[in-house]
Amino acid sequence: MSLIMPVFAVTIIVFGLVRRVPVFEAFLTGAREGAQTLLRIAPTILALIFAVGLLKSSGAVAVINRALAPAANAVGFPAEVVPMALLRPVSGSGSSALLMTVLQDYGPDSFAGRVASVLAGSSETTFFATTMYFGSVGVKKIRHTLLAAIAADVTAMLVSAATVRLFFG
Amino acid sequence: MLNYIWSFLVVFSFVCAALLGNTEALSKAFVDSAADAVQLLLTLAGVICLWSGLMKIAEKSGLTNLAARLFAPLLRRLFPRLDKNSAALEAITMNITANLLGLGNTATPPGLKAMRELHALNGNSDTASDEMVLFVVMNTASLQLLPATLGALRQSTGSAAPFEILVPVWISSACALAVALSLALAGNHLKRRSLCPSSCPSLR
Fold first, then answer.
1. What is the CA radius of gyration of chain B?
2. Chain A residues within an 8 Å CB radius of B172
3. Under an 8 A CB cutoff, do A57 and B53 touch?
4. pLDDT of residue B202
5. Over 90: is that where the pLDDT of B182 sits?
């Protein structure tokens, strides 16, 4: 598993060479686009990290966790990850900020850290994607789209906790 | 929506700090959080630029197209009413492939194009067609083969095995996608809408 990234990267580069792509220039073009993406999400990240910083230092996180713990425990979901799960469908960079907070505070290899990781990898910013795609063509009646999308988010939440328990005991 | 969520978080924190007597920690967080954000951005900067660069090579060398050809038959089954050579199905295939490879930015333009094509096929109605529901739902469920950014975030916070979560991620995404697709298809089945209300020549 640890080789997966290097193997993937080398495959891409070798395939590019075989197809006679100017790989270095292509890389630079892509990396530049990446930098632009980063600049675009930077203000959101800053805003959300700020809010999360306030939440933690004020003791609000502890209050929220205590309130949510019974419901979260009932379905086997770590209460520490609930704030991230709630923000996930709304804001991608916002939930990245919360993911980072969970990884830092509880450790990436803790139960909460693993569940947060799996959830981040298996869910999307539902409301953003729905609004963007339907908004782009002016469709207003989206029928059962949100129902199906939210059901998928809830499924990802439940299954992420279940798989982490299954794989890591 | 974030207007309310964000303001609520800030105000709620202030109230909690006042009630719990954590005001000193709160003022410290004002300064620290900005520095924390920069640290997170630096972690993200490296991995986002690196992978955007690598995936650009994959795109230019036709590797992405090759992958798209692999997924095309599957998608044809999900959208049986679209002509297999239609611009709509081609855009859908490119969008889903890009998402699968973790190319969020590359996925958006063909995604928007797919919506335009489906919208035209739908007679520019303001009600979503079956195909639109299915397509958007697939975009709200994440199916990503190699979550590079996630791995990098885990590594930077000291994970012993950043990618050990890979198989759970696949299982969890597959379950979420299965639920999303089933509900979308069931909903479509319950109240079938014709792809094109009036006479529409682009249908087979």
1. 22
2. 118-119, 121-122, 156, 159-160, 163
3. no
4. 47
5. yes
Comparison of pLDDT for B203 and B106, the residue scoring more: B106
Q: How many CB atoms lie within 10 A of CB B98?
A: 23
Q: Does A119 touch chain B (CB under 8 A)?
A: yes
Mean pLDDT (chain B, rounded): 88
Q: Is B179 on the interface with A (CB under 8 A)?
A: yes
Q: What is the mean pLDDT of each run of 10 residues along chain A (169 residues)?
A: 81 94 95 88 86 88 86 91 88 86 94 96 89 91 94 95 95
Contact in structure between A48 and B16 (CB atoms under 8 Å): no
| Phi, psi values for residue B111, rounded to 5° | -65, -45
Q: Which one of B11, B26, B55, B57 would you mutate to disrupt binding with A, by most A Cβ within 10 Å of its Cβ? A: B57
Q: Token pair for residue B178?
A: 């299965």
Please state the three-class secondary structure of B111-147 as a single string.
Answer: HHHHHHHHHHHCCCCCECCHHHHHHHHHHHCCCCCCC
Q: Is B78 on the interface with A (CB under 8 A)?
A: no
- Cβ neighbours of residue B161 under 8 Å, at least 6 residues apart? A1, A2, A109
Please calculate the CA angle A153-A94-B50 and round it to the nearest 5 degrees. 100
Q: Domain spans of chain A?
A: 4-15+22-168
- Per-residue exposure over B175-197, b if at least 16 CB sit within 10 Å of its own CB, e if not: bbbebbbebbbebbeeeebebbe
Q: Does A95 touch chain B (CB under 8 A)?
A: no
Close Cβ partners of A125 (under 8 Å, ≥ 6 residues apart): A88, A89, A90, A91, A92, A95, B140
pLDDT digits (tens, 9 = 90+) for A84-124: 998 888 888 888 888 998 999 999 999 999 999 999 999 98
Of the candidates B60, B126, B187, which has its C-beta nearest A148's C-beta?
B187
Residue ranges of alpha helices (H) inside chain A are: 4-18, 23-58, 60-74, 82-87, 92-106, 111-122, 126-137, 145-168
Contacts of range A18-23, beta carbons closer than 8 Å, 24 or more positions apart: A18/B61, A19/B61, A19/B62, A21/B57, A21/B60, A21/B61, A23/B57
Q: Specify the DSSP class assigned to residue A79.
A: G
- With a cut of 70, say whether residue B195 has pLDDT above it: no
Contacts of A169 in chain B (CB under 8 A): none
